[in-house]
Amino acid sequence: MPATALLAVSSSSKVAGTLRSAGSSVWTKDELIALVREQLLGHKLILVSNREPYVHRWVDGRIEVQQPASGMAAALDPILRVCGGVWIAHGAGDADRETVNERNEVCVPPFDPKYTLRRVWLTEQQEHDYYYGCSNQIIWPLCHVVFTRPLFEQRYWDAYREVNQLFADAVLDEAADQPALVFIQDYHFALLPRMLKERNPNLIVAQFWHIPWPTAEIFRVFPWGEEMLDGMLGNDLMGFHLRYHSRNFADSVRMGIEARADQTGFDLTRNGHTTLVRAFPISIDFEEFSALGDSAEVAAERENWVRELKLEGKLVGAGIDRIDYTKGIPERLRAFNRLLERSPEYRERLVFVQIGVPSRGEIPDYHALDDEITNLVREINKRWGTRTWKPVALCKGQYNAAEMVALHRLANFFVVSSLHDGMNLVAKEFAASRTDGDGVLVLSRFAGAAREMSQALLVNPFAVEELATAYRTALEMPEEERRRRMRKLRTTLKQNNIYRWASELLSALLRLE
Ligand code: F6P
User: Fold this and answer.
1) Start-to-end C-alpha separation, the chain
2) Which of 151, 208, 323, 405 is the most exposed place for a label (fewest CB within 10 A)?
């Protein structure tokens, strides 16, 4: 869409900056609401993602609503709660059909409805080929360069196209003939922007890619690269976490498809339509995590962890991840083993607690990883454990926010050792919940979060010795330094919160930057 048409969205001549309270460097919910009201007059907000923010499941004969372990869903839910609109996603829960109306819609959050969730149904075969196949065995390993080979199956790509079309039908139905802004999440929908623009050129379409984008040299092996890039260039705005990923994407376009770049290299024009490519580091609702960190609920959960895992008087290291081969979980366990080898004084004094949320269970690589982690933990506990001390506590399952934040609050050091990660919001959640100002973050240099969180102990997670040294440094860091680092991390995150992310993205889309 040309700039003039985008600006016509708003009758106001105010730019985003003028909506901010004077002197404030922190974006708030209210400022985002003001921006949306000022600039999106009459436009319906339609968000699209594969993963739904609320899942209905049968538990012991009753329907329960659950929030999935998805950084994306957790980050976007507050935005929709503030802005209202419709969120279209795959209905994956076994009780999802029982809870929607005839338009496949349900109001959420269930306890305080603020927006509409519209569910799209997939057959088992579609889910298998589009989600487990194309999204997570082709695009995921292609974009995360961790040496897992993508499985370039034609039927997976065909299913991907088919499912993108199903979502396009739902979006177009939802928009009808009213003005709408469609905000697409992630790598499950690279073809959707073009499909939407072809059928309704008046839609404003933006997409955010929550994972890395590889270098052009890696992307060039993707067999359907031209179709994918053409799909993404249907967007008015294409967002990545980092400028580095934006640059990689622009390079892939330059090498792979007919398109013209402006002098910055980040405004790409194909067949007369311009896509702005920009970096927006995603974040979290800092205030919400801080409040949770201080809550009585978290204090109670903390007691539960201490009691159940016998943590009284122990030093604690911790990690919370989906069980995914990009997260570097075996690497962090090997480093823990190495620490116990090198530093006998920590034996019987230190426990490492790892929450592992089961993920993408149909994929063989994920199964193999799950086994590898279980075996490693068993070996470490067998080698070092005593009658009264179990060095590693592996907790597999779904945990609620209070339970996870309670673990943050218990940790002397917290490990995010992703081998490659777009951002990693767990690292941000850890620092946001540490209102006590203590705790050390050990963070992979290869997670996008490392760019903003330089006060963490930054490590190469492939280097086990380095990681083991970082644990030791964290454990021996003087209190004053721990507090200084945590203060800086929290100041950065307070400013770079999720409302700033959304506001900056919207401002760029409306060319108010
Ligand atoms: O990191 C990419 C991402 O899609 C996130 O946006 C999301 O939090 C995570 O992966 C979860 O993946 P899935 O929806 O496949 O469980």
Assistant:
1) 17
2) 151
